[in-house]
Amino acid sequence: MASLYCGVANTPSGPPLAARRPVRDRTSGRRRGARVLLAPLAFPLLLACTTEPSAVVAVAGGRVFLEGARLAFDDVIGDPELGRVDSLFLEETTNFSTPAVENAGRLVAVQGMVAVVGHANSVASLAAAPIYQAHEVVQIAPTSTAPTYSEAGPYSFRMVPSDERQGPFLVRAVVEAFPDGARVALVYVNDDYGRGLREAFLAALPEGGYPVVLELPFAEGEPHPETVEAGTAALLSADPQIVVWLARQGLLGRFLPAIRASLEDVQVYGGDALSQHPADLAPGSPWHGVRYADFFDPVASEALRAFGARHRAEFGSAPTTSAILTYDAVLLALAGIRQGARTGPELRAWLASLGRERPPWQGVTGPVSFDERGDLQRGYVMRTVGGDPPS
Amino acid sequence: MLVVGVLDTGVLVLAATAMAVLTMRASERLGRATDQISEEQRIAEVIHGGITRQLMQTTAALSPLGGDAGGQAERDAFLASGRTVHMGIRRFLFRDLSTDQRIELERMREEHQLFEVAAVQAMEMLRQGIEVEGGNTLEAMTLHADRFLEAVDRFVDMREREFDAFRTRQAETFRRLYRAAGAVALLVLLSSVALAWRLHRRVSRPLDELARAAERMGSGDLAARVPPGRDEEFARLSGGFNRMAENLEAATRSLERRNEELEEALAKVQTTQAELIQLEKLGAIGRMTAGFAHEINNPLTSVVGYSQLLADRLGSGPPPTPGEIGADFLEPILHEATRARHLVRNLLEISRRPAGAATPVDLGKALEVVTTLRAYAFQQAGLGLAVEAPDDLYVMAEPQMLQGMLLNLINNGMDAMAPEGGGRLTIRAGADERSVHVMIEDEGPGLPNTDRIFEPFFTTKAPGQGTGLGLAMVHRFAHAFGGSVRAENVPEGGARFTVTLPRAERPATGGERGAAIEAEPSSDARPATARAPRIRPPTGTGPGDAAGIGEAAPAGPNCRGPFPAAADEPGRAATAFRPLRVLVVDDEPHVRHLQQRILGSIAAEVRLAESVPAARAILEGEAVDLVVSDVRMPGESGLDLYRWIEANAAELAVRFLFVSGDISDPVLVEMARREPHRFIHKPFRIQDYLARIRSMADGG
Question: pTM of this prediction?
Fold first, then answer.
């Protein structure tokens, strides 16, 4: 009988990961401790779970990441073919890289660490990647799209394609919407994600007909009101037909009311970061009609719909793309371990063999295989907030 | 010991190797660190250049004096410079950094990005005519620029500290390596000295002791032993050596005992061999005895007969004149007596035990001794014997052994030719400067196996005919004299033995025993004894024999008168009307003539025949009353004649008297046992002879 054990530790100077208590017994079916895991934390919390530890799979990221990971580990409890696997959940509450670097340093120090699913975004994943490379621990980034991540090394994989694909994809969408040309305003977050996607977009943009009338960088985090005011003014002054938003959804939320008020006909296109847009929008929300590139349609398949239902039942909300990708990433790592890859190098080889020596692994998001740089071999889909308008 | 040495050496080699590896790794690390420092300097220069340009571009763009303040071109140039800075920072990302350095690097990147955002926003505000001086944006730009530079400084400081620490560690490592190298070198030196001393004490010394013991043992001191070694290897070696020495000593003692036994056995074998050789020689002589008895009985018969005739003559009738005594009686007696003495001396000479030492020997005399002994046998066997040897040919040999050799070779030739009943044995002698060669060549069937002919007990003769030691003795004697003997078959048929002996000078004095053999006067009946050169015709009918076929010998002074029916004594007058006709057959002239004289005393008419064919010729031409025949004669024997008479004139067979020196033929032996009156043995008394004659004349 396999049991799952978990423990909680404060970071960075909390007690070691030895205090564990069972949170779920396969026989009784009782689940304990899950709420603790999902409780909003004011400080970094280290939570460990294990089935008589030998191999360790960790998950580090935002709350939605851990939701997907929880469901994935629930799926494998009592799996007799899996063997003994410890799991380690590490919630990261910011998108900055410094916590990711610190957490990566802790994770690679855990004995038996095979894989880490994380981190929260491209910057964090990229900053932590060299640490995993140095310790031969597989890193599976659920949502990192920064092109630089492709250069991180052989132990770095990601569940999404690179922005080198997303940039041209967005350009095609823009050209499709404005085949005769349009003035383009480009707003981007000045980090590895925004910079990389900006470069990919500009490189794919046709030479004529689509002048970039404004390029406006923003920093990660909550902007100063003055900055928002100036930016809004600049945006209105540029009078674009299209605003391409290569920053995260929070910043767009600050700009959208002004954009909708002053630029009625302007269309907003965004990158995959907008997939985290607010749910349950009220009618007349400025978010309606915003189009963005996404990795998949969450309701495109029966499996995705079933997962969505399960997520809603478990957590009370529809799963985000990040949660679904984290779910697939955890199951992917466990599938490799189930097939005998119980060390970082073994799991790395197993992942690299997908789509080559062995067929792609079938996840809820679709078939998974990687190119030689560890990027998922899959395309993007265009989605619209509030639903696609009738064609 | 060797294991310890090897371990010592192995440890030293390992230590030296480890030193080399450590030094190499330290050098490699130092080299990599140097490369890293150089590369990071280049990266830092790129970052520094980029941020410097960005600051200058920001200053220019925000300056009231700027030409195109907030223009797109300035903004693009600013962002391009920022890209350079960003890529420089990212080049640090994949380097080997500590967590603190990595965090500082991320701060540096974030501050740069914030600086860029603030700068671009300031440019945009300026472009839109918004006052930036004293505003938050410009303040933020300045703040993040300062923080960025501070972060760069901190990062560079951290790297420099790390490189300084690394350099210090490397310097310390090299110092340790140098010290370790010195320690290893000292260790090597001490270990070498210790190893050399240990090798000397545990290897050289035991080996020296082992070598000395081996030398002592080699010089015959089998009691030499090695003290037990300290190390297991040398303990086993010394133990093995000592056991070997003990075994060798025991084996040597055993060998000495066996040697003594062998020497004793060899002495016995030599004695036995000498006895065998002597026995063989005596055996050869023994095989000659039958013929010799007959040969010596002939002269004895003459001596006895003529002496008795002389006595009778002196006792009855007119005394003979001294001339008659000398010519008719003493001369045959002396001749035959001398002949008998000669035979006996030769027999004694050859029968004598050898003296042992080799001396110059007259080969001619030796040949004469043996040929004289065998001449009669050859004659009796119908074989020829010829000697061709120059005078004054001396060889180094022992006389008796030399004669034994020659006798065996001559006997061997005679035995080979006798079954065929013909042939000649030729003895040739020649010499070169250093050797004398004697070739004895017969005309027999040849040798069946020339390779084995000299092996002891190898014989082709019938059982009882020889011991098989004769030719082996020849071989041994020849080699004992420093010579050799070779056997071969001649193409014309027959065998040839070549004896090669060292040539010797004629001795100054007659010290040679062989030279003491008295030279006998030559006999007309024994031409084989002729000397210088002794080219002898084949023996056969004696050239001096006056009796021919059908010879009617004169009866002599007492051979006339009537044949007495029974004469009691010689000279008694016969009463018969006609004289008794007697055929006397004998190859010996003196014996033939003696019988003629005896028969003459009874007025018998005597016919003389020197051989069986001559006798048959007489018998086929005229009638005789009595046949008196010798048994052994050259060619056909008396028994052959008797059988011829039995077949052709049976009535005469009852009056056939055998006169014989010896009887060896089994048929005659049996006949002599059944009819002893038919035989009279040489030498005989005249009265006995006449009594048998009379008895035969009366019909047995």
Answer: 0.51
